[in-house]
Structure formats: structure tokens, C-alpha cells
Write a structure and sequence with these properties.
about 70% helix; ATG22/LtaA_families; transmembrane transporter activity; transmembrane; transmembrane helix; about 0% strand; disordered N terminus; Growth Hormone, Chain: A; single chain
Length: about 475
């Protein structure tokens, strides 16, 4: 049963205004263009195409290439390159986001750090316009930079939720920001869908159209990042993390990071939630990043059909995030997320059974994915914000972001390994069920009220 406490949460501060909350939410709008157009729809199949052109130059484009290319001296099946690239990006992200989290809590101007990280990532995304022929090595490098910067910037961004929203408002604020992200990413995807579908009328080859779309996603990310950076410019860093000045910025952050690892055992509910999130979010992120490859190769859909699919997911997910926010207000975030994870399990099992070429069945699965995707992710962020010690949000969100969208490692690794072993994407997608099952079982063990008390935070009315 969802419990209600008579305690009154701490009164909102001058930072917890509607203007700050609106400005904060625009970063979801900004980076979602890269996540949808590039990370979800285009870069996986396009990077696979570049590698396949190198490894299997005579093979038709609608068939999977099982020949290998050499990635850092390691033979990798061309069809697995995109999955392994995301895995490699996550390995780098684990180090980078943890350092950024420790530094952000010590930064006097966290929104400036947010802007720098976002703009470096967006430059890498715009540079993908240069990818052509067999230049998959450059593609791997640019994906690494963009994904690592996306994860690092989101550490700073997510941690600011605690600064701009009171405990009882966070589910609402987080859900609305996620909805904004899905709408923003969806609007750009509409434009890019038109470019891909009408490329001949525009005097473009299909490859040139794809490259132009990749550039637009990076440009969108860069331009709209200006809104949160300017709107939250007056926010200052916390002084809640005392580290000797003699240690320096990097040394102090490393010392703080060491202390955080040591302190995690003092927050067992927070740690359990992180483990649960590691599993079910890796499943979500792998479905998102691998859906276009699965749809194009295993089910035989064209690029335009895949863009229609993701477009449907985007707008349904915007509505789903708002619906899940309302459900959380009534039933609590934890129970609502558990329901979403159970739905993910059934949907992925259904996707395995979709017949080749059955586009309407595929769209039905996509609509169901959209309904649960936004809500589970938005509520996970707001629920976790209740479980982190105040003043140390960025360093704790660094652990969270290591498992966040576009940086899942176990899921993409399993997906790539299963394909390389079987030569088929169907068993690869089915293997992801284990992530949802394990994640749901771990989440069911989290005592949210106890975790909030352990972190020393005010108790919201409903959890």
C-alpha cells in the first residue's frame, strides 16, 4: 500500500520556481534530437552499412554481413559494430561521468559545465555529416565522443532536478520534461523523415540525406541547450562537499569520488535501486538503440518505415510520460515503474514473434513501447532524486547516468554477442528479457521510505 506521511516537506526555495523548471526541461528537448534521429534511427544502420561496405563490398545492403572488421585490433562482425561501439562508449562513460559528477558538485557554475559538455557532444554529432563510403572508423570515434558527452552532461542536468523542484513536485516536473523531450525529438524526426523520403526531389542521394539528418540532430542539440544554460545561469554550486583546496580541482574530485564509493554502503536502498535500474534500463536502452537494426535486417523494413516507427514511439511516449506522472501521484512512483517494467517484458517477447514484413504488427508493438518508455524513465529519475544525499546529487547521479540512455553496456554487449554467435537478430532481441525480469525483482525489494530517510531528505506525501 502506498503510504502517506503527515510531515510537511521543506518549503520551496527561490530556485524552485516555474521559470526554473521550464528552463530546466528544455535540455530534454535539446538532446532528444540526437537520441532519436541519430542514436535510435540512423547511426546504427548507417554505421553498419559503412562497416559492411568495407567487409562485404559485394553483399546486397538488405542482408546481414557476418564478415569482420578490425576494431582496435579485435575482429568484430560488421553487423555487431554498432552494438559494440555503444558498449565501448559506455566503458569510457563509466570513468568520465563519475569524474564529472564529482567535479560538478564542486563547480561554482554547474550550468556552464552543462553547456560545455553538451556543445562538445553536439559538435561531434554535427561532424557525422562527414561520414561516407567505408569511413566507419571515424563514425565509431564520433559516436564515442557524442555519447560520452551526452552521458556526462546529463549527470549535471539530472542533479539540478533537486535544486529546482520540491520532493512532491519531482514526478510531475521530470515527467513533463521527458514529454518535452519526446515531442522535440519527434518534431525534428518529422522533418528528417521528409528529407529521407523526398531525397530525390531535393536533389540528394539517400546517403547525403542521411548525413544531412545526422548534422541537423547535432545542430538542434547545440541551439536548444542555450535555453537551460541561460535560464539557470544564476544557480551556484553547493558547498556541501568539503574537500581541501590544496587537493586541486581534479585531485579533490578524485578524493570525493573515493569517498562516495565508500559511502554507498551507507545507503543500501539507494544501491539496490541503482542495481535494479542497471538491469531494466539497460534492457530499455538496448531495445531503443537496436530497434532500427532489428527492424531493417530481421524484419526487412526500409529507412523510411523505421523513421515512421520511431516517430510514432516519440509522440506516444510524450503522452505516456504524462500518464505515468499522474499514475505516480496516485499509486506511487515505485509501483508505477514496476508496472512499466512488467509491460516491457511482454512487449519485447511480442517483438520476437513479429513476422518479417508485418509493418502494422510492428507499429502496434512500437505504440506499446512508446506508452511505457517515457513513464518508466521519467519516474526512475524523479524517484532516484529522493534517494541521494542533498548537496551530493551530481556524484550520485553519475552512478545513475552510467546506466542511462545511450550508454547501456551489458544489454548492447549481450545483443552483439548473441548476433555474432547465432547470425540472427531474433534471439538477440529475446535475450534482453532477462534484464527486465532481474531489474523488476530488484526494484520490488527497494524500501523507498527507508531510503529517503537514510539520505536525510524530506519525505514526499506519496512514493
Amino acid at each position: 500500500m502506498t503510504s502517506t506521511l503527515p510531515d510537511t516537506p521543506a518549503a520551496p526555495t527561490s530556485e524552485m520556481t516555474r521559470a526554473h523548471q521550464r528552463a530546466w526541461g528544455w535540455y530534454d528537448w535539446a538532446n532528444s534530437a540526437y537520441v532519436t534521429t541519430t542514436g535510435t534511427v540512423l547511426i546504427g544502420p548507417y554505421l553498419t552499412q559503412l562497416a559492411s561496405a568495407d567487409a562485404c563490398p559485394e553483399l546486397p545492403s538488405d542482408q546481414a554481413c557476418t564478415e569482420t572488421v578490425s576494431l582496435l585490433g579485435i575482429p568484430v562482425a560488421a553487423g555487431s559494430l554498432a552494438s559494440y561501439t555503444v558498449t565501448l562508449a559506455t566503458i569510457f562513460s563509466v570513468v568520465v561521468v563519475l569524474l564529472v559528477g564529482a567535479m560538478a558538485d564542486r563547480s561554482p557554475r554547474p550550468t556552464r559545465l552543462l553547456g560545455v559538455l553538451a556543445w562538445v557532444g553536439s559538435l561531434a554529432a554535427m561532424a557525422m555529416v562527414l561520414l561516407a563510403g567505408t569511413s566507419w572508423q571515424l563514425g565509431v570515434l564520433l559516436v564515442l565522443v557524442a555519447n560520452v558527452c551526452l552521458g556526462a552532461s546529463t549527470v549535471v542536468y539530472d542533479a539540478l532536478l533537486v535544486r529546482i523542484a520540491a520532493p512532491d513536485d519531482r514526478d510531475r516536473v521530470s515527467s513533463r520534461a521527458w514529454a518535452m523531450g519526446y515531442v522535440g525529438g519527434g518534431l525534428l524526426l518529422v522533418a528528417n523523415l521528409a528529407v529521407v523520403q523526398l531525397h530525390e526531389s531535393l536533389g540528394l542521394t539517400l546517403e547525403s540525406a542521411v548525413r544531412l539528418c545526422l548534422f541537423s540532430a547535432g545542430l538542434w542539440w547545440a541551439l536548444f541547450t542555450l535555453i537551460p544554460v541561460v535560464g539557470l545561469r544564476r544557480l551556484r554550486g553547493t558547498t556541501a562537499v568539503p574537500v581541501a583546496r590544496s587537493a586541486g580541482a581534479l585531485g579533490g574530485s578524485l578524493r570525493q569520488l573515493r569517498d562516495t564509493f565508500s559511502d554507498l554502503r551507507c545507503y543500501p536502498q539507494t544501491l539496490t535501486f541503482l542495481l535494479a535500474y542497471l538491469f531494466f534500463n539497460d534492457g530499455i536502452q538496448t531495445v531503443i538503440s537496436s530497434a532500427s537494426i532489428y527492424g531493417s535486417v530481421a524484419l526487412g523494413f526500409e529507412t523510411g518505415q523505421l523513421m515512421v516507427t520511431i516517430l510514432l514511439v516519440q509522440f506516444v511516449a510524450a503522452a505516456g510520460a504524462l500518464v505515468f506522472g499522474r499514475l505516480a501521484a496516485r499509486f506511487g512512483a515505485r509501483r508505477t515503474i514496476l508496472g512499466g517494467v512488467a509491460a516491457w517484458t511482454l512487449i519485447v517477447a511480442g517483438a520476437y514473434l513479429v513476422p518479417r514484413g508485418a509493418f502494422l504488427t510492428w507499429l502496434f508493438c512500437a505504440a506499446l513501447i512508446g506508452l511505457v518508455m517515457g513513464g518508466t524513465q521519467a519516474l526512475s529519475r524523479s524517484l532516484y532524486s529522493q534517494l541521494v544525499p542533498r548537496g551530493r546529487e551530481s556524484e550520485f547521479f553519475a552512478f545513475y547516468q552510467a546506466m542511462e540512455r545511450g550508454t547501456s553496456w551489458f544489454g548492447t554487449l549481450v545483443f552483439g554477442l548473441v548476433f555474432q554467435t547465432t547470425g540472427s537478430y531474433r534471439p538477440a532481441i529475446l535475450a534482453l528479457l532477462v534484464f527486465f525480469v532481474v531489474g523488476g525483482l530488484l526494484l520490488a525489494r527497494v524500501d523507498v521510505r527507508r531510503g529517503i530517510a537514510d539520505a536525510g531528505n524530506p519525505q514526499p506525501a506519496v512514493v
